[in-house]
């Protein structure tokens, strides 16, 4: 496609004194809290903990500053972020379920983490997703109703950039309007296709009935797509939680382009206390490493891949597996890196010929002149086709029949949870359906290839390893444009074309305090240790039936209150 790689904006940006590129510039080597990773969760914590003026907090981010990165700011340019310096550029291991293929696994390598590079879809999942978290952990505070204050706290809904009244597209009772993360609806670029999709939902009431608000806790049906954008720009964790006034707080210190290799035991303490972070500004084993110390806690917020990678390298995990790669085990927690769950993605497209739709921007992806006009329009007033990411205005969340489920067991959290998602993207000339299994039964692993912390981890989502019956493929995935395809053809087509949604969770899952399994307790403190807390997508024991960024904001907002309460702030 033509969409040009615009890495840095020509607009002037301000360098704030509290963002450091070198540890030599830090005012101290000891802080109250050290947050490892300033991604979706880490940015929330950086903001909320520095609301307490006497806390001195340091955030260490492996990637660069997000300021001025036009591909991240402009929603329509987000496709350029994959395989860039703002991406960890991970790939999965060869997947048996994908006919031996490895696929890209995008993770944000920049302030704001994956919220700075993702597709900006804002979905929370079902109420039963969170009620299952509460049930599994034995902690009622993780339930849907208990978490509602944090839903309102992080969200700041704004009107669509095209100025239309969103009445009839969402239910304001389920939204926050004062939070730092903007949510809204995309500008309508192809009204005719939207009209047809909504008409189809009326015709197929049994399965795809219209849902006024998929973020109400009951997502099933066809609803309007809500995104983390506002006023024509991406609203990510770094832009929302770390605006200029927050970055200027004298008690917040942000160290970028710096990689934490291990969390270390702190000498002089009784028991297993881990409040020191080993780090380097280099990119291989030859660079020197230094140590910073937290007087209260180290909070690991490196994400569902980065968090287990760091834990395993410091010797926390399955002791037998660690020994195989030459790492001395220090704490036997076999759940580290185990059972990650992701949403496999499968796309089917069809050609359309809607003659009553004058789709001026329809050829944007293949017309460089049109693309330049679109960028000029965005620069002028933040509108036009680049003010949205792709062209999907509706999402369908649906379930399959009981007899189709693997061994008859429902992997979802309950009857109001979806089994699959259809993200419908269309224009006057084509329509595509991005289909995802959002309540998968498959479980994978994140493990180490070597004892070198600079080597990428082995990411094995185990896609399609828990097979359903043949009817599932026909039910969830529309057949390609041939007549009467066989089940074998459909299966092969699916396995040869599926990719990752990069929604992995569960690699440092929380379970009850007295549970023999799990990595963290319901208060997110590492089991069998003190001084180390995990706050990111890795702690959820099950993946929500949703794109996962909204749930991470919810986790992090509650975690901030947990930390403040623990230290009586």
Automatic annotation (TrEMBL):
UniProt-recorded name of the protein: pyranose dehydrogenase (acceptor)
KW Transferase (keyword) present: no
Organism annotation: Agrocybe pediades
Subunit field text: Monomer.
Enzyme class: oxidoreductase
Enzyme nomenclature, EC number: 1.1.99.29
Cofactor dependency: FAD
Domain Glucose-methanol-choline oxidoreductase C-terminal: 486-556
Record keywords: FAD, Flavoprotein, Secreted, Signal
Catalytic activity field: a pyranoside + acceptor = a pyranosid-3-ulose + reduced acceptor; pyranose + acceptor = pyranos-3-ulose + reduced acceptor; pyranose + acceptor = pyranos-2,3-diulose + reduced acceptor; pyranose + acceptor = pyranos-2-ulose + reduced acceptor
Keyword RNA-binding: no
Principal location class: secreted
Amino acids binding FAD: 110, 118-121, 260
């Amino acid at each position: 496609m033509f969409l040009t790689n615009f890495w840095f904006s020509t607009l002037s940006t301000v360098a704030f004194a509290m963002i450091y590129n070198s540890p030599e510039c830090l005012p101290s080597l000891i802080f109250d809290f050290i947050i490892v990773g300033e991604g979706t969760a880490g940015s929330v914590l950086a903001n909320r903990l520095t609301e307490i003026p006497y806390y001195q907090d340091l955030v260490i981010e492996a990637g660069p500053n997000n300021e001025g990165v036009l591909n991240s700011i402009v929603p329509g340019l987000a496709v350029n972020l994959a395989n860039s310096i703002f991406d960890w550029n991970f790939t999965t291991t060869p997947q048996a379920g994908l006919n031996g293929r490895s696929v890209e696994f995008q993770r944000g390598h920049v302030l704001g983490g994956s919220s700075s590079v993702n597709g900006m879809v804002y979905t929370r999942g079902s109420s039963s997703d969170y009620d299952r978290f509460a049930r599994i952990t034995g902690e009622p505070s993780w339930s849907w109703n208990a978490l509602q204050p944090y839903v309102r706290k992080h969200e700041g809904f704004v009107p669509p950039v095209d100025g239309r009244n969103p009445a009839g597209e969402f239910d304001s009772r389920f939204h926050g309007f004062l939070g730092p993360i903007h949510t809204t609806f995309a500008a309508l670029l192809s009204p005719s296709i939207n009209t047809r999709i909504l008409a189809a939902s009326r015709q197929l009431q049994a399965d795809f009935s219209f849902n006024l608000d998929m973020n109400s806790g009951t997502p099933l049906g066809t609803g309007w797509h809500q995104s983390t954008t506002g006023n024509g720009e991406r609203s990510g964790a770094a832009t929302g939680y770390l605006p200029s006034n927050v970055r200027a707080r004298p008690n917040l210190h942000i160290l970028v382009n710096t990689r934490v290799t291990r969390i270390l035991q702190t000498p002089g303490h009784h028991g297993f206390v881990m409040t020191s972070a080993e780090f380097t500004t280099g990119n291989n084993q030859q660079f020197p490493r230094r140590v910073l110390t937290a007087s209260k806690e180290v909070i690991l917020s490196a994400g569902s891949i980065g968090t287990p990678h760091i834990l395993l390298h410091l010797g926390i995990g399955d002791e037998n597996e660690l020994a195989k790669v030459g790492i001395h085990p220090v704490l036997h927690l076999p759940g580290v890196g185990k059972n990650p769950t992701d949403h496999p993605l499968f796309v089917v497209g069809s050609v359309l010929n809607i003659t009553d739709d004058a789709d001026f921007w329809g050829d944007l992806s293949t017309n460089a002149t049109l693309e330049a006009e679109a960028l000029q329009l965005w620069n002028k007033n933040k509108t036009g086709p680049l003010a949205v990411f792709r062209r999907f205005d509706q999402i369908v969340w649906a379930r399959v029949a009981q007899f189709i489920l693997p061994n008859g067991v429902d992997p979802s959290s309950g009857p109001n949870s979806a089994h699959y998602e259809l993200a419908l993207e269309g224009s006057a000339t084509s329509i595509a359906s991005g289909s995802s299994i959002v309540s998968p039964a498959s479980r994978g692993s994140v493990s180490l290839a070597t004892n070198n912390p600079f080597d990428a981890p082995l990411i094995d989502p185990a896609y399609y390893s828990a097979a359903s019956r043949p009817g599932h493929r026909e039910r969830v995935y529309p057949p390609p444009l041939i007549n009467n395809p066989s089940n074998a053809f459909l299966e092969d087509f699916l396995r040869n074309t599926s990719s990752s949604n990069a929604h992995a969770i569960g690699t440092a899952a929380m379970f009850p305090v007295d549970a023999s399994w799990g990595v963290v307790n319901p208060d997110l403190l590492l089991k069998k240790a003190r001084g180390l807390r995990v706050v990111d997508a890795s702690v959820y024991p099950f993946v929500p039936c949703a794109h996962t960024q909204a749930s991470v904001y919810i986790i992090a907002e509650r975690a901030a209150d947990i930390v403040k309460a623990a230290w009586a702030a």
